[in-house]
Specification:
- The protein is an alpha/beta fold.
- It has a single domain (2-102), classed as Alpha/Beta hydrolase fold, catalytic domain (Rossmann fold), CATH 3.40.50.
- Helices cover 41% and strands 14% of the residues.
- It is built from 4 helices and 3 strands; from the N terminus they run αβαβαβα.
- It has helices spanning 2-8, 28-36, 58-70, 89-102, and strands at residues 16-19, 45-50, 76-80.
- A 3-stranded parallel sheet has the order 1-2-3, with helices on both faces.
- α2 links the parallel β1 and β2.
- The chain starts with a helix and ends with a helix.
- Belongs to the AB hydrolase superfamily. AB hydrolase 2 family.
- InterPro entries: AB_hydrolase_fold, LYPA1-2/EST-like, PLipase/COase/thioEstase.
- Keywords: Hydrolase.
- This is palmitoyl-protein hydrolase.
């Protein structure tokens, strides 16, 4: 939901953190980026995904990140070793440090 909102309607948010996420190949977000293009100003994006996620495949998240890059949406993708489809302290520590570095 955060990705949809930040890329289509509320580009003025401070940042977007996306955990263990993917988008279907025919997502409206991709169509919007293709038809309208990227907004003049986008927030920084962080994508985190566990390398042993047994619900949302890591490659699905990487594919989404690469596809966003094809449309000009940049962001950092962080693979979290040993993480399934959950959160853990190393991931939260990484998110905290990223937010501290990237938020105004």
């Amino acid at each position: 939901m955060a990705l949809h909102l930040a890329l289509r309607y509320h580009t003025d948010v401070g940042a977007v953190v996306s955990l263990s996420t993917f988008m279907y190949h025919n997502s409206e977000v991709y169509r919007h980026l293709q038809d309208v293009g990227i907004p003049d100003k986008l927030p920084p994006f962080l994508f985190c995904h566990g390398d042993v996620d047994n619900f949302v495949d890591l490659e699905w998240g990487k594919t989404m990140h690469r596809r966003f890059g094809q449309y000009g949406v940049t962001g950092h993708f962080e693979t979290i070793p040993g993480l399934k489809h959950t959160v853990n302290k190393p991931e939260l520590d990484f998110v905290k440090s990223w937010v501290m570095e990237n938020m105004p």
